[in-house]
Amino acid sequence: MAAVSTEVQIVNSFPADKLFKILSNIHNLAPKVVPEVYKSITTIEGDLGVGTIQSHVYGDAVPYTSSKQKFDVVDVNNFYVEYTVFEGDILSDYLDSIAHRIKISPTADGGAVYRHTTVFKCKGETKPTEDVLTQTNEGYKKVFKAIEAYSESGFLLYLQLISIMAVVSTEVEIVNSFPADKLYKILSNFHNLAPKAVPAVYKSITIIEGDLGVGTIQSHVYGDAVPYTSSKQKFDVVDVDNFCVEYTVFEGDILSDYLDSIAHRIKISPTADGGSVYRHTTVFKCKGETKPTEDVLTQTNEGYKKVFKAMEAYVLANADAF
Prior knowledge:
Strand content: 35-45%
GO cellular component, one term: cytoplasm
Helix content: 25-40%
Radius of gyration: 24 Å
InterPro entries: Bet_v_I/MLP (IPR000916), Bet_v_I_allergen (IPR024949), Plant_def-hormone_signal (IPR050279), START-like_dom_sf (IPR023393)
GO molecular function: abscisic acid binding; protein phosphatase inhibitor activity; signaling receptor activity
Family: Belongs to the BetVI family.
CATH superfamily of the largest domain: START domain
CATH class of the largest domain: Alpha Beta
Number of helices: 7
Strand order of the largest sheet: 1-7-6-5-4-3-2
Organism: Helianthus annuus (Common sunflower)
């Protein structure tokens, strides 16, 4: 059986273990990031280990409709995967199968090298042309770069890795009359305003380190209306231009005994009428199998709504100060 192979190599800034986790979740990520390439990726059998069979349905940018593949090797410790495409019109009429080998190697600067080797196993003498080999590699580069760009936000990656990490997310959305830039300024002063507007929820918010930029650490002491006493959080993203903030609660009894951390993402979007939409996404990262109940998720969202409305009322009542 004749075989023709080609390889693409991509140097990137992701640590090897993180990149492996990202690509281990490609069945969920790819249809969201590059729907023109992958309409859907469905696991037919298995749990992403050896023997797992997946069905791929391709998008309009691909000259094939579907394929099926089977995982032959999954080496988590060495960031290595092998799988074989054994069915589908992607094989055309001259291929018996297509074998893939993906190897991720760490680099000295903390990044990684992604190597994707494709081996076309031919039925007879007909072989893929040089154009096919080039298009194959260019296609993998485009998909990789799209997923890389999607994952660089950090928080979106965090949400998408649900199948890898034990996490539960919830989101509250509040439409309001404040212009987006004004609401962002108000919430940037949350540490001063909240203890005045809702002292039953926040006794105090203290900046331990930083200047409200990335890396800033705050201490929260809660009021009598909250069943916890305190927490500490760190700012991971502060995007003033896009009215977006991400921070992680990493310490305090608010984590109970089953949470490793709680990640938050606040995004403010302007509306056509001059107001804005406030979106607060909360992601509970669990230590084990225990997860927050539906009641906890509901209470979380209702709590954010009450705090937002209290802050809104406080600002309107003290309009001269804002």
